[in-house]
Amino acid sequence: MGEEILATGAGAEQHAVDQQVAWSARGNPAQMALLECSVFEVFFGGARGGGKTDGMLGEWIQHADIYGEHAIGLMLRRTRTELIETIERSRAIYSLLGWKYNETDKMWRATNGARLRFAYLERDADADQYQGHSYTRLYVEEIGTFPSPAPIFKLMATLRSSAGVPVGFRATGNPGGPGHQWVKARYIDPAPLGNRIIRDEQTGLKRVFIPSKVDNNRHIDVEAYKQNLRASGSKELVSAWLDGDWSVTLGAFFDCWDSKRHVVRPFEVPAEWMRFRSMDWGSASPFSVGWWAVVQDDFETDGRVLPRGCLVRYREWYGMKPGQPNCRYHSQPVQEDFLVLFGECILIHDGEELPLCQWDLVHCPPGVEHVFVGAGTGPCGVLMIGSRRHDEVHYPVNELAAKYDASVKVPTDDPAEAYADWRTEEWRPAANPLPGSSAAGGR
Predict the structure, then answer these.
(1) Residue 43 and residue 51: Cα distance in Å, rounded?
(2) How far apart are CA 130 and CA 132, in angstroms?
(3) Confidence tier at 414 by pLDDT (50, 70, 90)
(4) Are 81 and 248 in contact (CB under 8 A)?
(5) Helix pair 222-230, 235-243: axis angle to 10 deg
(6) Options 3.30.2380.10, 3.40.50.150, 3.40.50.2300, 3.40.50.300; CATH of 4-243
(7) CA atoms within 13 A on the CB side of 178
(8) What is the CA radius of gyration of the chain?
(9) One-letter-per-residue 3-state SS of the chain
(10) How distant, in Å, are the alpha carbons of 171, 293, 435 from that of 201?
(11) Which of 88, 94, 301, 351 is the most exposed place for a label (fewest CB within 10 A)?
(12) d(CA 427, CA 381)
């Protein structure tokens, strides 16, 4: 594929052709690498200002030019507002090529018949609407805005072609956002410097992270852009934006939280360790009780050493009252297990109701939307086991959950917005002592 996409003027003289560059990757080595990459799954970017959106739009031009009417693409953003900006940028490029845009269908049709549709996925459940579709290219802009990879994986199943076109998934993103941890684990951690192909152990498919930073982008005033970013946030935030520093944890209650460091496998707590309990009414649940032990001397477990004085949370209990939800209807990119210790409750998951009673055990996979509602005549206690971070939770709108006052009115990834009108002040005087983890922790 050539480095430049040329648009030819219709009023040219016989020996002079008026050509205008509609899009070019020349001068941006990251975009050039994107165009040359044939790997099935590509994460492009990892920092602010690297020309990520232009890279996606240019990659589609190349794909459409090669495969013509058999090229069928879908480009997604999380919200409608974000999608508008991407569409406007596409107008500036594709219009010069003579492509036609259908405002109703949000779809570009190239002169050779290739089609690219734009859509937004505000709720994870919206991914189900694409079952049965077939695409040769799937683009997800700012993939870190998705708290869970579940809807993304569902959409990957639409990548197929009866015409034999090589299909592919392309995503962009920056550090931070509700999906920071799962994006980092999938694309950054296996090869932090990027440009190294990783083979998925389960599927055998290949994926690669192609870094693109602001210094790669010759179409903007780089220094002015950097100065604007430095004036927009903390040192850690700016480092994440400019340098693609995925090691920072933005927006967490404990910004030093690291599951690999602070969570260990369950072990028998020595009888001589001092133990105590703590209780918090919480910002989400009616109550949370934690059981703690203090490490007496350096203690080795699970191949690690817990230092003397380390606090270990070895048990926890969340509860709810009849007819009241324990929190807002939500999803998160980690699995959880729930054991009903006493009483009765209803589990609403993915829009369905499941009655539960004492000793019922439920496994909740990553990305599944859920909430518990108290039932019966007395209180209910549920043991919740898992690892959670507040900046990874997504709160969708759900009609069934709204029946129990458990749904937000507007989708959000911000807990403060989700619980702004939650019950009364007596229900939410403080935050949880730990971000939802019931495993043992060390500092």
Answers:
(1) 13
(2) 6
(3) confident
(4) no
(5) 150
(6) 3.40.50.300
(7) 21
(8) 25
(9) CCCEEEEECCCCECCECCEEEEEECCCCHHHHHHHHCCCCEEEEECCCCCCHHHHHHHHHHHHHHHHHHHCEEEEEECCHHHHHHHHHHHHHHHHHHCCEEECCCCEEECCCCCEEEEEECCCHHHHHHHCCCCECEEEECCHHHCCCCHHHHHHHCCECCCCCCCCEEEEEECCCCCCHHHHHHHHHCCCCCCCCCEECCCCCCEEEEEECCHHHCCCCCHHHHHHHHHCCCCHHHHHHHHHCCCCCCCCCCCCCCCHHHHCECCCCCCCCCEEEEEEECCCCCCEEEEEEEECCCCEEECCEEECCCCEEEEEEEEEECECCECCCCEECCCCEEEEEEECEEEEEECCEEEEECCCCEEEECCCCCEEEEEECCCCEEEEEEECCCHHHCEECCCHHHHCCCCCCCCCECCHHHHCCCCCCHHHCCCCCCCCCCCCECCC
(10) 20, 38, 30
(11) 88
(12) 17
pLDDT per residue as tens digits for the range 170-218? 999 988 777 888 898 899 888 888 899 999 888 899 999 998 876 666 6
- Fold annotation for 259-427: Jelly Rolls (2.60.120)
Residues forming CATH 2.60.120.10 domain(s) in the chain:
259-427
Cβ atoms 78, 121 nearer than 8 A: yes
pLDDT of residue 87: 94
Domain span(s) for CATH 3.40.50.300 in the chain: 4-243
Could you report the per-residue pLDDT of 377-413, keeping only the tens digit for each? 777 878 877 765 545 788 899 989 988 888 988 888 8
Q: Compute φ and ψ for 414, nearest 5 degrees.
A: -100, 115
Q: Which residues pair with 140 in a beta bridge?
A: 76, 171
Q: Rounded to 5 degrees, what are φ and ψ at 32?
A: -65, -40
Q: What is the pLDDT of residue 37?
A: 94
pLDDT at 441: 35
